[in-house]
Design a protein that fits this description.
Blueprint lengths: L3 H6 L4 H43 L1
């Protein structure tokens, strides 16, 4: 059975594996944040357009 230290060492490839996991996490967080901001902007634009349309009636 493998102990936790061996797992963290990744068979000697930890210097490559953990930074790759970190980079992937940073990229996924950036995509999520960007998507959230874009959705908020679209929701606000849609709300403004709905307000404008309702005021013209």
């Amino acid at each position: 059975m493998m102990d936790f230290g061996s797992f963290l060492a990744m068979g000697g490839y930890a210097a490559y594996v953990w930074p790759a996991y970190g980079a992937a996490l940073v990229i996924l967080l950036a995509i999520w944040i960007d998507g959230s901001r874009r959705r908020r902007a679209v929701d606000q634009a849609l709300h403004r357009l709905e307000q404008q349309r309702n005021s013209e009636r």
